[in-house]
Design a protein that fits this description.
about 100 residues; alpha+beta; 3 strands; about 35% helix; about 35% strand
Length: about 100
């Protein structure tokens, strides 16, 4: 009872917590890449590195918040198509990360 009374006394005398948000120049930055025909059955790989950074021309890496490494489901016919597929996969995932 003594501990409970101490806890209730403490909580009743403390001010309510207030969260304040301030706008910043922080952005979600993504590096992506792909490898062409690196897996059996004409499959390619896509990889992405998501990180928070400042809004500069070349955002400095601030440690990964999300990483993707997957096989591209569709058969691509060139390294350029593999890179475009990787960009699409990363952009789609970034949309999910920002919205949710």
């Amino acid at each position: 009872m003594k501990k409970i009374k101490q806890f209730l006394d403490y909580t009743s005398t403390q001010e309510e917590a207030v969260l304040t948000y301030h706008a910043s120049d922080m952005i979600l930055a993504i590096h992506s890449d792909a490898s062409y025909l690196s897996k059996a059955k004409a499959r390619s790989r896509a990889g992405g590195h998501f990180f928070m950074s400042n809004n500069s021309e070349i955002p400095p890496n601030n440690g990964a918040v999300h990483t993707i490494a997957q096989i591209i489901k569709h058969i691509v016919t060139s390294a350029a198509e593999a890179k475009l597929a990787a960009l699409y996969i990363m952009a789609k995932e970034a949309g999910h990360r920002v919205i949710h």
